[in-house]
Amino acid sequence: QSVLTQPPSASVTPGQWVTISCSGSSSNIGVNTVQWYQHLPGTAPKLLIYNNYQRPSGVPDRFSGSKSGTSASLAISGLQSEDEADYYCAAWDNSLKGYVFGTGTKVTVL
Amino acid sequence: EMQLVESGGGLVKPGGSLRLSCAASGFTFSTNCMNWVRQAPGKGLEWVASISWSSTYIYYADSVKGRFTISRDDATNSLYLQMNSLRADDTAVYYCSTAAGIGNYWFDPWGQGTLVSVSS
Questions:
Q1: Do B37 and A45 touch (CB under 8 A)?
Q2: Are B40 and A83 a contacting pair, CB within 8 Å?
Q3: I need a labelling partner for A62 at 20 to 30 A (CA). Which of A50, A77, A100, B72 fits?
Q4: Is B47–A101 a contact, with Cβ atoms under 8 angstroms apart?
């Protein structure tokens, strides 16, 4: 059972933007950093955002992350067909002493 | 280039055992933490276990605690996951990944995964 809650899906037309929320608690997002991963089924998950808002080299600046209190968000602007994937937030949970992933959001580009 | 390649997946009966391996290259394996994450069919990503450098710290998800054992061999740049008492709900693609530490660190990169199917 996931501890971090995300909307199950989002549908966006090409060129538009989408925001994905990630709701946690005081034992995970409230006190630790948030990471975001992009996953296309059958492939290796890819790190998109680390330390709440930082982008690894090679990730377009169309992707941005933010965090406030016990929630975090991933924003994707100028959506392209290649952005159609599953997106997961993740954080360390001090109470569980383990990593927790979000429930995942499937982004569909119409 | 950092690379992780998993192996060892397959079909196993409930109650059986399986050992997964992850071969690492392109980075200093001995100073990195290593992790296993899985994805069951139609489900999201689930963290399974993490091991720090020198195996000083080891953590498991409650769902596998007491059944799975994570270990590493720094001499061969290899990560392992010994899975015992397997159940149907352990069926998943298992990914290995690396991180600079445990806690406020990120998993990057990830391997392509190996499929474990538990069925009679």
A1: yes
A2: no
A3: A100
A4: yes
